[in-house]
Amino acid sequence: MQNELITKRDIQAIGEEIGYELGAQMVKDYQTANPQDAYCYVIGRNIIETILAQPGCVGIQFYNAYNEMGEKTLVYVGLDADGKTILEYTTVNKEGQLAFEKGIVADRLERKPTTKPSTEPTPPPTPDTFTWTID
To answer: Which among 2, 7, 20, 104 is least surrounded, fewest beta carbons within 10 Å?
Structure first.
């Protein structure tokens, strides 16, 4: 029997900055292959921080889904260090007793349309106004 070294990936270390050029190419390739799909999704900071603030949460997992109207969306949940979805966690209430709280299962992102944003000339981007425009 062969022994194999099993390495566990640190969930909180998953992901990295890839730079504008590679990011733009990846987005363009996807949009070319899927012209009818949503251009992009927007998720606000508040829900991301709320998910990450759950006890033991070290990452967020995104699931492709359809909402109640049949539109493509994302459902996102917190992950613990073992890669398990946080659906419930334990807290101590004001009386000093253990209480169980439901983990956050989120949606209600903003879905951008399937059409690409205008390519009309715009002022040079600043950190506050930068948006992706891919030709």
So the answer is: 2
State how far the Cα of 75 lies from the Cα of 105, in Å rounded to an integer: 7
Give the angle 7-11-14 at the CA atoms, nearest 5°: 100
Q: Which two tokens stand for residue 83?
A: 């890669």
Give the pLDDT confidence of 85-106 residue by residue, as tens digits: 999 998 888 999 999 989 989 8
Instruction: Check: CB of residue 51 under 8 Å from CB of residue 61.
Output: no
Of 55, 73, 56, the residue nearest 64 (C-alpha): 73
| pTM, rounded to two decimals | 0.71
Q: What's the token pair of residue 88?
A: 């419930």
State the total domains in the chain.
Answer: 1
SS3 content of the chain, % helix, strand, coil (to 5): 20, 25, 55
The domain in which residue 102 lies consists of 39-111
